[in-house]
Amino acid sequence: MARQRTAHVNGVDLVVTEDGDPSAPPVILAHGFPECAHSWRHQLPALAAAGWRAIAPDQRGYGHSSAPGDVAAYGIEHLTDDLVALLDETGHDQGVFVGHDWGALVVWELARLHPERVRAVVGVSVPFVEWPMRPTELMRSVYGDRFFYILYFQEVGPAEREFDADPRRSMKAFLWGASSQGMAVAEPRDHPMAGTRMLDVMPVPPDELPAWLTEADLDHYASEFAHSGFFGPVSYYRNLDANWERVRAIPASAVSMPSFFIGGADDPVLVMDPGGIERMREVLPDFRGAVVLPGSGHWTQQETPAAFNEALLGFLATL
Predict the structure, then answer these.
(1) 164 carries an active-site annotation
(2) Domain locations along the chain
(3) CATH architecture of 3-141+236-316
(4) Do the beta carbons of residue 246 and residue 107 sit within 8 Å?
(5) Of 19, 58, 101, 267, which residue is the catalytic one?
(6) For this structure, is 298 an active site residue?
(7) Are 60 and 12 in contact (CB under 8 A)?
(8) pLDDT per residue over 251-284, tens digit each?
(9) Whole-prediction pTM value?
(10) pLDDT, tens digit (0-9, with 9 covering 90-100), for 64-99
């Protein structure tokens, strides 16, 4: 049975949902943007039943966890140290780290910064990447004066004002727009960077939610973001360049532990990075493969949970 508590770790309070025997080997689940631990609701019991202790925090800035008011507080060292501190609580020297979307960026870098603490690492949606230059410089060179959401997120203020105005509308647009169903009706076209907001470029969701998302799920997300606001979550993106500076000298070979990838066949991230899986095969020393799930968009573990759990547990069985 899943249980919730507040963990006092690394100078912050993180609301943690967990399941499984407290003495079992830990799997720490890092959610993405804009989510929270609720995104792992289908994985917690499955991992517990398979003999793992599944630990899913609402990461800093999210829900009722601590939400520092400084952009730099959302840099990669703080984010990875939060997860290592959760591992310390378990009494285990090593854990398996699974991250979706921004959580994937965090666990990939955690494997570079703290390889001795990582038994295995699983990226979901976002492949391992070594940026050839500052990420925002690369994005500006690619997009020019066209709208790109990560560049829109860089200035403090506009994005959080847009999303905070109606958290339920914002969350419905995000969850629908990047899902398999939303991607099927999206009409890609260029918008100018000047004067465009994030929700302007997303498809308008229908009244009826997709089968994988209930009104109660949406209410939960809306309530969590109504409490936290979007400053912290968006500030993860504001640290991309600083994060690159921190890890650029650490080679991919540092990720020497078993690694794995799970993605959705309709995930827009894989559309933007079509060579990501092959790149991981080339640069990660113990890459044990990838599963791309049909019928899944960006919200992989929520849209197709049974297939996701089968893929994740299949990888864990190889350890």
Answers:
(1) no
(2) 3-141+236-316
(3) 3-Layer(aba) Sandwich (3.40)
(4) no
(5) 101
(6) yes
(7) yes
(8) 999 999 999 999 999 999 999 999 999 999 999 9
(9) 0.98
(10) 999 999 999 999 999 999 999 999 999 999 999 999
